[in-house]
Fold each of these.
Amino acid sequence: QVQLAESGGGAVQAGGSLTLSCAASGRPFGGACVAWFRQAPGKQREGVASIYFGFDSAAYADSVKGRFTISRDKAKNTVSLQMGSLNPEDTGMYYCAVKKVPINCHTTWAEAYFADWGQGTQVTVSS
């Protein structure tokens, strides 16, 4: 089992930036598929971005393309989500998760396929 710890959430004004971080303990990410999800109040949780930790390939939801960047830090065993040009629609709880099996990382974001989840970190964007 991978233990996930998230950090970096906070409050910013529209147009600002934030960087979230997800650290793994217990087991290293290795060749894992790691994804970021978010959930706004009263809405379903949705996938935001994914990355193969070993291959360093990435994919993004249409709503964040060109604004968010997911990346890995092999030395620190962390996955980050750089968020820029934030707007109020980006407000929500952000979670990182590790897929049970590292296949179809960028094409299948169903929550049932992710075994390990972080506690979530709040992002609030004010207009």
Note: The first strand starts at residue 3 and ends at 7.
Amino acid sequence: QVQLVESGGGLVEPGDSLKLSCAASGRTFSGYPMGWFRQAPGKEREFVAAISWSAGRTDYADSVKGRFTISRDNADNTLYLQMNSLKPEDTAVYCCAGHGSKWYAPRRLSSQYTIWGQGTQVTVSS
């Protein structure tokens, strides 16, 4: 299967910025990371952002719209999430998600994805 590895998480203060990366490596088939989800303690995993293969169409959760930007580098099959104006409520484990097919429309349901990373911790605290 495809291995997804996130990086870029850390401890920051409110108002700071972080950029997350998700790199994909093929095993028995190729996969394409195209979405970000997060899960805070005691809460269900929630959709954050998604992007189509062409990077021309994006979708964001209302809670992050205007602050987060999702992007892709198709040449090396890497997914990014630029997070600005971070708030304490953004604290969570952030996971990237992918699929074996190249989508040309963003997806926001976790059930639509087939491969996942283990996640990177983002903590926003003063």
Note: The chain has a mean pLDDT of 92.
Amino acid sequence: QVQQVESGGGSVQAGGSLKLSCVASGYINRNCEMGWFRQVPGKVRELVSIISHDGTTTYADSVKGRFTISQDDGKNTVFLQMNSLNAEDTAVYSCRMSSGNFCQAIYWGQGTQVTVSS
């Protein structure tokens, strides 16, 4: 059983910064990718950033140069540092973690709201 809790969301003016955290309990396969996704009402959930066990990172084009994903040494926590926020970043941000020998079981947190005022 895996449980994840996101925190760090809130309201910020355009140009500001926020740092999101996601802490997992239960068994996580630390060789699996961890990442952040976001979703707004009426739209599909989209990838924001992914980090692999070896530190390799992937970013959506819309956030490159502004967001940075990282993880703690124990790899039970994933962070998302968000800088130069704009109104288009407004969404519910959710973290994704996996378990199983082949990362076949995917778990989502409840999400944290990020609202950027222009």
Note: Residues 37 and 47 are 5 Å apart (CA to CA).
Amino acid sequence: QVQLVESGGGLVQAGGSLRLSCAASGNIFTINVMGWYRQTPGKQRELVATITSNGRPNFAESLKGRFTISRDNAKKMVYLQMNSLKPEDTAIYYCNAIINFQNYWGQGTQVTVSS
């Protein structure tokens, strides 16, 4: 059973940093793009960043310079390094990946930034 599991969320003060991890597991033959999205109550899920299998990143314009996405193909993992966090970054962060040509989502991990 293919699944994505996020970890690393938590409570952090404004200006702090946090590193999220996402591990893919199961009967996996191919993984194409991987990425991160986030969602707050009353709002639609929005793109944070994606990264191709060759390591090419794509960021939401407003997050460039603060967040960094990376991946380890051997470990089947994708990471999100978040720096200079702001209260408006508070959200549930979801891992996303195209695995075996299908779209998968993780269960989400809560990130809360206090002011």
Note: The mean pLDDT is 97.
